[in-house]
Write a structure and sequence with these properties.
Layout: H1 11-24, H2 29-37, H3 40-55, E1 57-58, E2 67-68, H4 69-72, E3 77-79, H5 90-93, E4 109-111, H6 112-118, E5 121-126, H7 132-144, E6 151-156, H8 157-163, H9 167-177, H10 183-192, E7 196-201, H11 212-226, E8 231-237, E9 249-253, H12 258-268, H13 273-283, H14 289-294, H15 298-311, H16 318-335, H17 350-366, E10 372-373, H18 374-385, H19 399-409, E11 413-417, E12 420-423, H20 426-439, H21 445-455, H22 460-469, H23 474-486, H24 492-500, H25 505-515, H26 520-542, H27 551-565, H28 573-593, H29 599-609
Parallel strand pairs: 5-8, 5-9, 6-7, 7-8
Antiparallel strand pairs: 1-2, 3-4, 3-9, 10-12, 11-12
Helix pairs in contact: 1-3, 3-7, 9-10, 17-18, 17-20, 18-19, 20-22, 21-23, 22-28, 23-28, 23-29, 24-25, 24-28, 25-26, 26-27, 26-28, 27-28, 28-29
Length: about 625
């Protein structure tokens, strides 16, 4: 969105109105002459054109065409407490549910724009892809339109470091390009009078080599002290932050909430209402819960929108989108901006990084660890590194530094509170756990996975991903079908219930009454009816595999299971039947998204496993 050439005040006009006459009257001919001849209108247009061309567009990962920042910009919210500063007693949180996030407990979300307006020095932390650069560009656009009083000066700290210039010299070069004579005088007056909004982007992108990061910290500290009247904003990745600046207000960008996701999606499809309606019709479905988890990061929500644009639907193989998201964070995000980071993590090739994260994810997920002590994560990292073929066992593994590098470079492991880590999203942990199992099938992990899912439904997403990753999932699904039937094999009462499930409803009720003499029988009958309805839904889905697989039936079945499962004793026969039906439903879903070479045989096996016709 280009600034209005009439109504939007520019730096040049503001400079002239503020102190242009003072400069031209300084008396020194070497200064006086150029200012008298200076074409302020032309400088204004050149400056605005420069700001617009540099900052008003953004090139999205996965899309070669730049788009306007303001067309998709969604108000950024920040947290009042930094993750690294929060403290928890681990014993109090380790037993929390799988989706528990202590960082959102008693944490206040605030407008990032209001924080910047209210403080002269703001240090903005965020995960990779959280929208730090986009936010600074938004601030610059507001200033160009006169909605912020200061003149914007945007600086990529990586470009500054690569230029070998000092900070003031680098800023002056930007003004020289616009034709300002004696740019240093203009810039110093601008800064000294508190009329500059200095946006310092990407401190984490400055390399550590040759002490470049330390020198940059010193330069910024000196500069912000010298020109303390102006407004400064610095951005940095959370893990790369060293908390080195005094007198700065530190804030951390919050994940997108549901409202922000909706706003972003509406802006993305603002000119394509039909696409927006298609997107929304699928977005809230139960099976897309993992996508909504990923979409808490603007970068990954962008990838989701781009993927949807190609087919106008969310792929049943959601694992492909998860893989693309991981690939973006592991490699593409930095390489797209030509960023080379410190060498502590250089020794690991991309494939080894994936293997490391998969190793950590599988081991922690197996132990039901979603919030993980720092020492546990570092021990898993050490165990992986020492087994690499090129690792010199004479060297000590600095697992803590590797952990920090993973967090800083990719944001796939993050510090939720002091010394407490987790994967950035539960979906990411499940994806890497599935990847580990998939790559170790030959080592007996096929049986391990099936045993895990039979015992604990929390492995459901891992099972779906793993079956989808296989080039041929026939063996996995065959074993799964056999193990599913074993849930009720030998349980005469369960077999009786399952066999009778398609008979008349009253007969089915009587079957259960005969087995239960206490008063709770009447209370259980409604849940039995739900179970019957669930089973019939599954039967209907089975008969349509694979061409007309009914998603609506699956959603209804899940709702019934959730309602029934919350009211039935875990040790009851009814609970076993519920679990049996859950496994069958999962088997159907795996079959629907997996590649198998004996599909008809497995379909027949699935029909036999669940005796519903």
């Amino acid at each position: 969105m280009s600034p209005d050439p009439v109504s939007a005040p520019s730096a040049a006009l503001w400079l002239w109105d503020t102190f242009g006459e003072k400069i031209s009257n300084l008396g020194a001919s070497v200064i006086k002459a150029p200012w008298k001849k200076f074409n302020w209108l032309r400088a204004e247009n050149e400056y605005r054109s420069k700001v617009h061309s540099q900052l008003s567009t953004i090139r999205l990962l996965g899309n070669s065409t730049p788009i306007d920042v303001e067309s998709i910009y969604t108000d950024v919210q920040v947290l009042d407490k930094l993750s690294a500063m929060r403290r928890f007693n681990f014993e109090d949180i380790k037993g929390k549910p799988i989706d528990y996030d202590p960082f959102n407990v008693n944490t206040i979300r605030m407008s990032a724009l209001e924080i910047v307006k209210g403080h002269n020095r703001t240090y903005i932390l965020g995960k990779p892809g959280a929208g730090k650069t986009t936010f600074l560009k938004h601030l610059a656009m507001l200033a160009c339109r006169g909605q912020l009083k200061e003149t914007p000066i945007y600086i990529s700290l990586k470009e500054l470091s690569d230029s070998r210039m000092d900070l003031l010299e680098f800023i002056c070069e930007q003004f020289k390009i616009c034709g300002f004579p004696n740019a240093k005088i203009v810039v110093e007056h601008l800064l000294s009078n508190g009329n500059a909004l200095v946006l310092l982007d990407g401190l984490d992108e400055v390399n550590h080599e040759e002490n470049a990061r330390r020198k940059m910290l010193q330069a910024i500290t000196k500069f912000t002290t010298q020109y303390s009247g102006s407004r400064f904003c610095i951005t940095c990745r959370v893990a790369a932050n060293e908390y080195s600046f005094d007198n700065f207000t530190y804030v951390e960008i919050a994940d997108f909430n549901e409202g922000q996701q909706t706003t972003f999606i509406c802006k993305w499809y603002s000119l394509e209402q039909s696409k927006l309606e298609l997107f929304n019709s699928q977005w809230d479905k139960v099976e897309n819960h993992g996508l909504r988890e990923l979409a808490k990061t603007p970068l990954l929500l962008t990838l989701i929108c781009l993927a949807f644009d190609e087919t106008l639907q969310f792929s049943k193989r959601r694992v492909d989108l998860y893989a693309e998201a991981v690939d973006a964070l592991l490699k593409k995000w930095d390489s797209s901006r030509a960023i080379v980071r410190g060498d502590i993590y250089k020794q690991l090739e991309p494939v080894r990084k994936k293997q490391l994260l998969s190793f950590v994810a599988y081991n922690t997920f197996s132990r039901q660890e979603y919030l993980i002590r720092k020492n546990v994560v570092t021990e898993e990292i050490r165990r992986f590194i020492v087994n690499l073929p090129y690792w010199d066992d004479k060297n000590e593994v600095d697992a803590e530094q590797i952990l920090k590098a993973i967090e800083s470079h990719h944001g796939l492991l993050v510090e939720r509170a002091q010394n407490i880590y987790s994967f950035s999203h539960l979906t990411i942990q499940e994806y890497f756990a599935a990847l580990y199992i998939s790559e170790n099938m030959a080592n007996g992990y096929l049986g391990i996975l099936v045993e895990c899912i039979i015992k604990d439904i929390r492995w459901r997403e891992v099972m779906l991903m793993c079956s989808s990753m296989q080039s041929n999932a026939s063996m996995l699904l065959t074993v799964f079908a056999q193990k599913t039937w074993e849930i009720v094999a030998g349980e005469a009462g369960i077999v009786e219930l399952v066999t009778a499930i398609d008979n008349e409803q009253q007969v089915w009720k009587n079957t259960y009454r005969k087995k239960t003499s206490d008063a709770s029988a009447e209370m259980q009958i409604p849940h039995l009816e739900m179970s019957r309805e669930l089973a019939l839904e599954i039967a209907g889905s089975l008969s349509l595999i694979p061409e007309k697989f009914r998603t609506t039936a699956l959603l209804r079945a899940r709702r019934l299971m959730q309602e029934m499962g919350s009211l039935v004793c875990n040790k009851s026969e009814l609970s076993k039947m519920s679990h049996y039906l859950q496994m069958t439903l999962l088997l159907i879903e795996c079959l629907h998204i997996s590649s198998v070479d004996n599909r008809s045989e497995i379909e027949e096996m699935t029909l036999r496993v669940l005796p519903l016709q």
